Hints:
692 residues, alpha/beta, 5-stranded parallel β-sheet, disordered N terminus
Amino acid sequence: xxxxxxxxxxxxxxxxxxxxxxxxxxxxxxxxxxxxxxxxxxxxxxxxxxxxxxxxxxxxxxxxxxxxxxxxxxxxxxxxxxxxxxxxxxxxxxxxxxxxxxxxxxxxxxxxxxxxxxxxxxxxxxxxxxxxxxxxxxxxxxxxxxxxxxxxxxxxxxxxxxxxxxxxxxxxxxxxxxxxxxxxxxxxxxxxxxxxxxxxxxxxxxxxxxxxxxxxxxxxxxxxxxxxxxxxxxxxxxxxxxxxxxxxxxxxxxxxxxxxxxxxxxxxxxxxxxxxxxxxxxxxxxxxxxxxxxxxxxxxxxxxxxxxxxxxxxxxxxxxxxxxxxxxxxxxxxxxxxxxxxxxxxxxxxxxxxxxxxxxxxxxxxxxxxxxxxxxxxxxxxxxxxxxxxxxxxxxxxxxxxxxxxxxxxxxxxxxxxxxxxxxxxxxxxxxxxxxxxxxxxxxxxxxxxxxxxxxxxxxxxxxxxxxxxxxxxxxxxxxxxxxxxxxxxxxxxxxxxxxxxxxxxxxxxxxxxxxxxxxxxxxxxxxxxxxxxxxxxxxxxxxxxxxxxxxxxxxxxxxxxxxxxxxxxxxxxxxxxxxxxxxxxxxxxxxxxxxxxxxxxxxxxxxxxxxxxxxxxxxxxxxxxxxxxxxxxxxxxxxxxxxxxxxxxxxxxxxxxxxxxxxxxxxxxxxxxxxxxxxxxxxxxxxxxxx
Length: 692
């Protein structure tokens, strides 16, 4: 779509996706990270300590009577208060005999399992001076192995050094027993070379490939996409990009709202206003105009005209029974909506999204309810059929049902979601997914929690394989005043208008800059990249579970953790490399010429070392987001990388380096930094620009 401006805008996502399956030029396993450290420490723990004895001691420690915290005694006013306090004292716990304690300890030892990576308590170092990683296992382990924390830490270090000594300095014990771990500079040098030679920056493809479904966006047919759909769409797209890059088989599903009683109203409105929509011969050519206006007109007739309301309800029955005219009109509505959504998806650069609407699951709804009834999970309640789960109550304390069939015989979101789970995980002709992610607003958290629980109780999720059903919640988009994000008239902000405004502001900002190298021919393309990228990045840089205040000024700022800052950082590195290589083509279709990696990376300044330490942690960051699904951590890492590059560039000459070898080394550092920015921006669904 933007191939005409290749020299200025790169389709990062497409390039990133094309490099998933190949990486034969380097040994990607040579890049070490937090998993390498954790696995080494697990080996040491299981060799040096008896996990059964540890389990025994942990059990005995729990049996020790807890020391009561002594509260400051208040002066008693009278004898009644003194008597009341004595009455409220907790009863003393039963005292166990030694035989009973030993029996409990023996049982704990028998059930004990070897140490695992969670027991290592390894985290990224909290401060640069502590090194790269920090192990906090010694403090918790010490009392259960009858050693002091520092002696425990020393025992871990003694066993660890032979396992990691080729890539890390000798571990340092700090404070009461913290173990600080730091990469050797020689390893950092070779690791950066490995990244430079790899078309994946030495990020390995997962060894545990899964079939993953990401359910996101989900607009409603005949309604316009609004700002509320923004977060689901771009968070879901980012997670899909990342999981695909990591080597998983990802299906992106758009669970559109294309079924329900409202379609009787809409179809009946088309019958009188757009009769061509009901014929297969003419429905393809009809223009339904503005769908929002059409929906409002149909709703007004439904609310005001009793005869129309009756016909609309009859049409729902016809539609559900497969009436040809009704289905044709319904398909016209769906296609008209799809055309509008595709414009938004094209602007947001959303690719590979498969529509799988509510209507797709209609054939499975009856069996969902009947199967729940057969298992005595679904029971009649006030004419409807519902499942009651332990632990769920309403505000009044009464049991909270999850209704699977309404009193009029119709189905609802819960029944559709249960049918979708069966198709995605249970049915042989379904997706056979190992992991299913639902990217929706946080307000639906309880709904999905209950649906997942019902699905597992009813065995709609196969027991013979571990399937993970995960709700990925996100907060609200608010105005700068912290209230609902709306137009001045109070209406919901249309997503189309929001995106257009971002592009317009970005174009005006670029034109106003004296140092801009963008001519009029490239302005619209670059403004689109900057404006849309700014909207995406502002959202993705926030913890997805938090509400965030929408501000054009903040998201388009060149300062701070924003898309324009990242885009300028990338363009700046491109400029440095162009100057070094003599590449300054005026041809807008010319592709950047990146230099070959240096034979050896030379680290001569602390800012170089700090930048490389950050770059080699790229696999750690990607693995973390793959597991925990928080895209803001990609943005945090991007911002930190850019800041460390700026410090490097302030302190280390690149084009005027003292020797040709040092220049080549620093150009390699520039190239890997640029590649890292480009990769992560691509995962975020944001294209980069080589000139800005």
